[in-house]
Design goal:
Helix content is 47%, strand content 15%. By secondary structure, it is of the alpha+beta class.
Amino acid sequence: MYNHFAKEEYNKSYSYATRLFSNQIQKIKTKDYYVNRYQDMHTVYSINLISGNYQNKNNELVNCYVNKNKETNEEIDQNIITYLIRLDKVKSIAYNIKEKRFITILRIINARDLKEVEKYIRKGDEIMESMYQFLKEWNENNAKNGFEEYMGEKLYEAQTKGEKEGKGQKEGQEQALKKTAQKRLAKNVDIQDIIEITGLSKKTILSLT
C-alpha cells in the first residue's frame, strides 16, 4: 500500500516482483552439472494499493501493466504483471453483483476506522463476518500488540488447533512435498533428483506412481 505512488515506488514494487520470480528457479543436479528448471516457474502478479493517478494513465479502479520495450512498445516480459488498484476511487465507483465482494474488501482496506468497516460487512457472509471479527479483535488488542505480532499469535493458534485435530504442520508439509514429487514424476524427472529436492525416501516417491 502506498499513500504516495511515483516512479520510485513503481521501481521498488517491480524489484520485489522480479526477486520473487527469480527465487522460483530450482537448480536440478544431474550427473555432471546443475540445470535451471525454468519451465517450472510461475507468473508473478504484483498488486499495489495506491491513491492518485500514477503518470496520469491510470483512470480505472484496476490498472494493469506489462513491461514493454520503450522503442517498439512491444511486450518484453509476460512473467511479471503489475496491478495498480486506486483506493481513492473505490468510494464513488459503481459496481455489479459479481464485483461486490472485491469492491467491499477495497472499501474495508480504505476505511478510516472500525465503525466505517462495520458499514460494509454483509450479514450472513461468513468471509466478511470473520474478517470483521479479526479486525475487531486486533483493534481491541492494538494497545499491546502490533499487527504483525497479532498475526503471528493467530497463526500459532491455528497451527495448534490443526495439530489437535490431527492436521498438524508436519503432516501438511509432507503432503506438500508429496505433491511436488508427483509433479516431478509426471515430468519424468529422475527419482534421485526428486529425492534431493523433496527429502522424501525412494519408497515414498515410488508409492506415488
